[in-house]
Amino acid sequence: MKIKAIALNTFKEAIRDRILYLLLFFAAVCIIFSRILALLTVGDRVKIIIDVDLASLSLFGALIAILLGTGLVYKEIDKKTIYTLLSKPIHRYQFLLGKFLGLVLTLFIMLLLMSIIFLAVVFLHTFKIEWSIFITIFFIFIELCLITAVAILFSCFSTPILSSIFSLSFYLIGHFSWGLETLIEKIRPGIGKIMAQIFYIFLPNLENFNFKTEIVHHLPIPSNIFLLSTLYGIAYTIFILLLAMLVFRKRDFI
Amino acid sequence: MKKKLIVFLLILSCGIFMGLKLQINKIAREKIPGSSIIYIPSGKYLKFVTFGYSPFIADLIYIWAIQYYSNYSIPDRYDNLDHIFSIIAELDHRYLDPYEIGAMIAVHEAKDLSLAFKILDRGLEKNPDQWIFPLQAGHYAQMMTKDYELARKYYKKTMEMDGAPVITRRLYANAAFKIMDYKTAWENWLEIYQTTEDERIKKIASNQLYQVKAAIDVKVIKEAIEKFKERFGRNPTEQAQLVKHGLLDSLPKDLDGKEYIYNSQTGEIRAPMIWWKR
Amino acid sequence: MATALKIEDLHKSFSTGFIPKKKKILKGISLAVEEGEIFGYLGPNGAGKTTTIKCILGLIFPKKGKIEIFGHSSYSLQAKEQIGYLPENPYFYDYLTASEFLRFYSQLSLMKKKDKEDKISSLLSLVSLEQSASLPLRKFSRGMLQRIGLAQALLNEPSLVLLDEPLGGLDPLGRKEIRDIIVKLKAEGKTVFLSSHILQDIEMICDRVAIIVNGQIVSQGTLQDLISEKILFTEILLSGVEEKEVEDLGECISTHTERLLLKVFEDEKIEKVLQLVQSKKGKIHSLIPRTETLEDLFVGIVKQQ
Fold first, then answer.
1. Is it true that domain C231-304 has CATH number 3.30.70?
2. Do residue A52 and residue B63 have CB atoms under 8 angstroms apart?
3. Domain map of chain C by residue range?
4. Closest to C177 in 3D by CA, of C136, C129, C218, C222
5. How far apart are CA C173 and CA C185, in angstroms?
6. A216 burial class (0-12, 13-18, 19+ CB within 10 angstroms)?
7. pLDDT digits (tens, 9 = 90+) for C57-103
């Protein structure tokens, strides 16, 4: 399949990017450092380790998604490798999807590596494996797929630096969505409030994928939220990819 | 420039800056204790600023706080104790360690008992299933200020929670006794005596019951003696006289059935046995 | 003979600058390329050659106009199946080797797997790059990149091959090789559309040309039609005669030791020069009638605009 070919090629290109290894290195450092940080606390050490490690996975994963994703399409346009590619009998959307899937594959492998180090550190400390951690990591992965789609969207029409800033803002706003809800309650009813509410629904609620608190405190997670959050993530990702396809369709490659 | 010259200058400048760093470190600088933390707003809006990493930030602040409060060179570090631990609670209200440690710092280092109670109360409020908080609060009330009334309240709260340790009831009964609520003390010690399977605890309960009964009985007898004195102007010669004159229905006996020891000269009544020597 | 490529009234403008100012690049291009011919697309820099090619490929969307490739709309996949494209200054994924690169591109068209490997090796030998099959593209020289680009363009056996400045930056040997390949393509029945401004090469291989200046086609047709067979002048290289003696017969271009290069415009004067040299016991080294070249035509047209 054509999309598969482009995805694999993107993957090969992505793993050559040195930034990837730099970020992976920092993530590994943070995870191992959590063990040392835990020594400074009085009380529950495992909580510190899990908190720091999940935060690292989440943060560095997001950075990888943003930094790689924003460069992806832009590099092809800038270096003009895209000319020969698009002159072949493929649809433009196949190109975009291929890029997206290649990057998702890269992210998956990176997350896997970070998770293995994470689990090793936790295992060495507690000598047991917390299976619920996998659920949290799964949702981190879904969140990262969404961020990747956003990064690719911006990369279709903007330079890497601007795209990175936009994507990062998207990430922050996504986690702030809950606060927005509180703020909206304070607005007096009227046009402003309605507009704010529409705005709110549109914006992603990335907190839907955030189960770090539940894992650390061993709280139960309602079972319907799994399915709903996963579907939300998939639906929103598809939405963003469609936007990207729209932008990319009629773009002139001067 | 020639390569050798560059390398030489490199090593030289490296040595210079390392030496300077050591020198500067020796100079004591005015530390404004905890000034940066003061400007973090607490309140629910703080959680929004952390973008989903709040438990992690809570951890960091907690670890920082431990180092900060162990640093004896900062003179007025306890000024922000309440503020900092409230921030940690805001960020991750289910993180249990900070409540305990915060209270501990408040009690032992800052000598501010009311703050300790505030922190532990907050811990219980946010985590209604954690019996450790009222238990600790009761402990501090009892140990630090001998405020048995307050301790009793906390112990009662603890007792009502699932999974509270068995000893809580004993502490409760003891506290009740100390504030002279003999009825409660008796009821609880009786229940402990009847329900425990541990021989040692049974013995303790039995001794405590003895003590409570003795306290009740001594009080009753003493009242009777006072009335006698009012009527007859002198101490009764023996206890039986109190019964003869209708001041007592019957002569109370201790838990083992023995009579109380009456000293007619001083008018004192006491138990025949020291309760903990039984 | 089917029409391989037909462009009708193509218009395109770009808005550039911070305050967008519209600049017209293509102002109504129309041309037709017949199947099986080599078509040259000429013009000075900035005339709109690359823009036209990108419109054909669907990399740029024209404001107005219609483009058809073998009867299909240029945006359709059937059209794209029949095109091969080599861009100007080609740049490819430099971490791939030559064969990996061709393999990747082959996966983007509808070729059967078995055919792919055969095709890749035959293309590599066509462009004389078999030795470098396992070399990563970043180690390729400019000429090699051009050749692998050509190989990539021919992967799916296209009927129409679009080459944007294929001879640019090549040494004379490289240019000859590419020219030979292009001629070979024609022999196989393919149609070649190439844009260039190396006019000597165009003149050598093209059947028809179109000249674009400032976004408009100013001239289109077969080479014979455009360039008259009329002899402009005759260049005679002679020795043994003084410059003064031939002054009235023609224009002295240069004097090199004893040799004289003379430009004679009138046919009658050639006879006189020959007679003069014979009488002086001199020598004629060469006598070349110069007809109008494409360059002359081109320069003349551009100057007119």
1. yes
2. no
3. 3-226, 231-304
4. C129
5. 19
6. buried
7. 989 898 889 999 998 888 888 888 899 999 988 888 888 899 899 98
**Same-fold call for C3-226 versus C231-304:** no
- Shortest distance between the Cα of A8 and any Cα of chain C, in A, equals 9
d(CA B88, CA B68): 14
CA distance, residue A17 to nearest chain B CA (Å): 28
Q: Which of A13, A90, A252 shows the shortest C-beta gap to C108?
A: A90
User: CB-CB: which of C59, C85, C107 is closest to A2?
Assistant: C107
Strand order across the C83-86 sheet? C83-86, C160-164, C191-196, C38-42, C208-213, C216-222
| Lookup result for tokens 């002159």 | A87
Domain boundaries, chain A: 2-249
Assess C108–A contact: CB distance below 8 Å, yes or no: yes
Q: Is C60 on the interface with A (CB under 8 A)?
A: yes
Residue B148's nearest CA partner among B109, B185, B118 is B185
B71 touches chain A (CB under 8 A): no
DSSP for residue C95:
T
Cβ–Cβ below 8 Å for B56 and A37: no
Residue B252's CB is within 10 A of a number of other CB atoms, namely 19
- CATH code of the domain occupying C3-226: 3.40.50.300
Contacts of residue A79 in chain C, CB cutoff 8 Å?
91
B194 in contact with A at a CB cutoff of 8 Å?
Answer: no
Please report where in the chains the tokens 């490997």 appear, as a residue: C117
Q: Can you point out the beta strands (E) in chain C?
A: 3-16, 21-34, 38-42, 64-69, 72-73, 83-86, 160-164, 191-196, 208-213, 216-222, 231-239, 251-256, 259-264, 283-291
Is A80 in contact with C108 (Cβ distance < 8 A)? Answer: no
What distance in Å separates residue C141's CA from the closest CA in chain A? 17
List chain B residues with CB under 8 Å of A170. none
* Residue B64 structure tokens: 């920082």
Q: All domains of chain B, ordered by start, with CATH?
A: 42-130 (1.25.40), 180-278 (no CATH)
Beta bridge partners of B263: B268
Chains in contact with C via at least 3 Cβ–Cβ pairs below 8 Å = A
Per the structure block, which two tokens stand in for C86? 């080599």
Cα A31 to its chain centre, rounded Å, is 19
For chains C and A, having 3+ Cβ pairs within 8 Å is answered yes
- The interface predicted TM-score of the complex, written ipTM, equals 0.80
- Give the pLDDT confidence of A30-62 residue by residue, as tens digits: 888 888 888 888 888 888 888 888 888 889 999
Residue pLDDT, tens place only, A145-178: 999 999 999 988 888 899 999 999 988 888 876 6
CB pairs under 8 A between A and B: 63
